[in-house]
Write a structure and sequence with these properties.
Elements: H1 2-28, E1 33-40, E2 50-54, E3 62-66, E4 68-76, H2 103-132, E5 134-136, E6 146-148, H3 150-154, E7 162-166, E8 169-170, H4 176-184, E9 187-192, E10 196-201, H5 206-217, E11 222-224, E12 228-233, H6 238-242, E13 249-253, E14 256-257, H7 261-268, E15 275-282, E16 285-292, E17 301-303, E18 313-315, H8 319-341, H9 347-352, H10 356-361, H11 369-387, H12 395-408, H13 414-445
Helix pairs in contact: 1-2, 1-11, 2-8, 2-11, 2-12, 4-8, 8-11
Length: 446
Amino acid sequence: MIKVLQFIVSLSLLVFIHELGHYMWARFFKVRVEKFYLFFDWGNKKWDGSLLKYKPKNSYTEYGVGWLPLGGYCKIAGMIDESLDTDQMKQPEQPWEFRSKPAWQRLLIMTGGVINNFLLAILIYAGIVYCYGEKFLPYKNVDMGMSYCSSAHKIGFEDGDIPLSADGKELVSLNIDEMQAMLTAKQVKVLRNHKDTVTINIPEKFIFQCENDAKNKNESFIDYRMPTIVDSIVPNGGAAKAGLQNGDKLLKVDTVDTPDFKTFTTVLDKHKGDTVMMSFERDGKLQSAMVPVSNEGKIGIALLPIDKIYKVESREYGLLESFPKGIKEGWTTLVNYVSQFKLVFSQEGAQSVGGFITMGSIFPDTWNWYAFWQLTALLSVILAFMNILPIPALDGGHVMFLLYEIIFRRKPGEKFMIRAQIVGMAILFALLIWANGNDIYRLLHN
């Protein structure tokens, strides 16, 4: 329920800000807005579909909340939109209508939502670094380097490699943006054995191979490589029964070297339900013990936190400093998303498309404001990009027709616009069904 609540709150904010962009520019150019709704109010003759509605005295605008939380809309007078209300278009053109305004004004009205969403993302990213600062673990501080998934090993990555650059762009520390940059790059350079620079060519559909590793093998594409040092022990677990202590550094499992935690868990997984000889270092001395392994492949320990093993760096941002950082984060997020979007047109990409379940699942199980704002900023960038695609019924479709008008100095015909709107809505409904169908399929088969 916490996931669902966070998703609905985030989506409501993004939709409100998006529709507010259209509303603000329409009112600025003195165009009437007939309805401004959060969520859709599809209804019938008995019920108009609104949960709340309010129309101020002497106002042309009805404000409300619909029952279907899949978006929202701003109904602008004198415009063919998803409502397909053409009655008004049959009347003489009025000075307060959208269709009576110059093309450049209509262009600003139609791009207002996209602009607002991108500006919101920048503002959120700036707010995050201003409030929380920035904590990061540079690759250069990780003596053991990074660990990689099976598909990464197949194309040339080796555990211990330290990322240097992706398509010439410097890589500094592990985060979503840098991970996406590596997954979608053509070439990644790494430092191997702390001395050799190695170039790895990335296949075009590498990101999908890594997604399969994550789903089927529970392997992350890249992660920090850490020694297995005990921070705490679960009572009555295998480690407790064997007499292991906090601070013990586990080195071998049944004569197999386990220099890092990933190797340790892989080897341990082969001894489910067994008791194994385990070598470890305590106070500089090598010792061993017989340790029971649970049927799940666990011995009941918690690892020493990464910030107690490697030096984590931090930086504070003043109010003015935070905005350039927000702009950089927003732009980087957009570039990375666009580079991934082209993969949607492949077979693997089409199968990986997700709907509301996928979007909701990215939020954490417990309410975390830092994660909430990070994910809201990401969704805001995605919403901005998706809305500017040149599909009729989306803002990008209207922009496409406006650019046609500006270039050729004549408007597309009304019948053409109505048909284009219907086609666009059909495309959007098909995509909606496909994406959410993928979610349901994955839910039933996992």
